[in-house]
Write a structure and sequence with these properties.
The protein contains seven helices and ten strands. The chain has a three-stranded antiparallel β-sheet with strand order 3-6-7. It is elongated, with a radius of gyration of 21 Å. The chain folds into two domains: about 1-100, Calcium-transporting ATPase, cytoplasmic domain N (3-Layer(aba) Sandwich), CATH 3.40.1110.10; about 105-190, 3-Layer(aba) Sandwich (Rossmann fold). It is of the alpha/beta class.
Length: about 190
Amino acid sequence: MDDQGGNSTSVLIAAQICSSRAQPGTKVAALAPSTQGVTVLANGDRARMLHASARMANTALRVLALAERPLRQWPLAAHDAANPEAIEQGLTLLGLIGLQDPPRLEVFDAVQRCKRAGMCTVMITGDHPDTARAIARELGILTPDDAVVIGSDLDGMSEQELAQRVPSLSVYARVTAEPNCASCGPGRRGAPW
């Protein structure tokens, strides 16, 4: 990016729209390009962006927001590089993209073979719940009676609550690599260990 004839560097950030660390009310970007130049991102703009993101996620796309901002120096100072919040300030939203990453063909057959054998099949993923739900439906994992749970919700459940909910859970979304989710055990739709 050229800043009034001078040389400067821009940072381009691609972030999942509903990242696991985003809190309700968090702004994804402070500014958005428009026909009048760059303008402040209003609540209506945010609502339209989240609606577009949900539409893409509901068709099994992984959604990224692209944003940029000028940097005063490159490489970043060590304290800024280690602090994502310092980098993710004063961003200009460039747009949203949806990436298709379909399941491998052998996954469809594997899910069906497990079902025929009487095994319960669950999906554990880091994907956004809407994306995970759409993929699980395509694979035949999620039925109308099943539920989707988010990893952060699992962290807040007691052992008793988790045991009560496991029979209706087919999709565990936004789950991190940390061991925070229980395996399918006895009682899930009557399936034996």
